[in-house]
Amino acid sequence: MSIQISHDQKSGRWSFSYSRHLFVAVGMAFLVGGIAALAGPWWLPIASFVFGKIDVKIDASANYWVAAILIAVGLSILAFKFFVLDKWAHRLAIDKEAITQSPPAAQEVKRYFDDLLDDHSYRSSSDTHFYLAYNQFSDASKAFQDTKTAALFEAFSSDARDLHHFVGQNFFVFPNNQGTNPDYRYCLAPHLNIDRDMDIYDTKKVAQYDELKRELAERVTHARQSYDAFVGRLKQLGHL
After folding, report:
1. Helices 61-80/20-39 angle, 10° precision
2. Helices (H) and strands (E) in the chain, counts
3. Model's pTM, two decimal places?
4. How many CB atoms neighbour CB 223 within 10 A?
5. 234 alpha-carbon distance from chain centroid
6. How many Cα atoms are found within 13 Å in the side-chain-facing hemisphere of 219?
7. Which of 88, 95, 137, 168 is the most exposed place for a label (fewest CB within 10 A)?
8. What gap in Å lies between CA 178 and CA 184, rounded to an integer?
9. b/e per residue, 185-218, with b = 16+ CB within 10 A?
């Protein structure tokens, strides 16, 4: 049974953790206190008899109200533990098992984002890792049980699909001859890039490329933020 309060100086965040056994102990304390109050002190019948002889009445009803309140609080705490905390812990255990069996490829996804932004290119193997990342937990048998975790993954999956659709429409194999290397390199609109496949400088084509760069950066930013939020949730829960 323990309560821990910690503060992260870098992020400025406070965290609160507790043992679920704490709720059992507190709930039982209220419950036992209520039962004790319901029973009343051992001397109450004697005092009532003695003071009754001189017409002084002792009101014992207050004990019943106190007992009812203590028992209600105790039962509420125990019910919260068994019907809310235990179920949530069970869902988290299922999610952790799924993560253990199939951990996210965070480094590969990060590399994919970095390549898209820094060089406007990617390798086919990296693209495969990215595709698997946003479909990794989409199957019903692998779906997250924790509501917030599931929502964060769905947000990433949606942003990732938007990015991948854009990449599929605007990236092409470059250079055309890549030898025997099966890990093909794809680049953003090479025909609009003077450093790649645009033979003669064309202002209109440069403007088109700049617009594609802007849209690419926007989509990568959204996907990266949602992925970081998802992975951050997994770390917060101790799954990673």
Report:
1. 160
2. 8, 5
3. 0.68
4. 27
5. 6
6. 21
7. 168
8. 7
9. bbbbbbebbeebebeeeeeebeeebeebbeebee
Are 116 and 189 spatial neighbours (Cβ–Cβ below 8 Å)? no
- Two tokens, residue 67: 């007992």
The alpha carbon of 161 is separated from its chain's Cα centroid by a whole number of angstroms, namely 20
Ramachandran bin of 55, using left for φ above 0, alpha for ψ from -120 to 50, beta for the remaining angles: left
Question: Cα 58 vs. chain centroid, distance in angstroms?
Answer: 57
Distance, in Å, from the CA atom of 224 to the CA atom of 156, rounded to the nearest integer, reads 8
The whole-angstrom separation of Cα 127 and Cα 15 is: 37
Q: What is the pLDDT of residues 53-105, one digit of tens each?
A: 445 454 555 566 666 666 677 667 666 666 566 676 777 888 888 898 889 99
Q: In the 8-state DSSP scheme, what is residue 10?
A: T
- Residues contacting 229, CB < 8 A, separation 6+: 152, 155, 156
Q: Smallest Cα–Cα separation from 105: which of 230, 193, 236? A: 230
Name the residue among 210, 157, 203 with its Cα closest to residue 188.
210
Both tokens assigned to 200: 């003669």
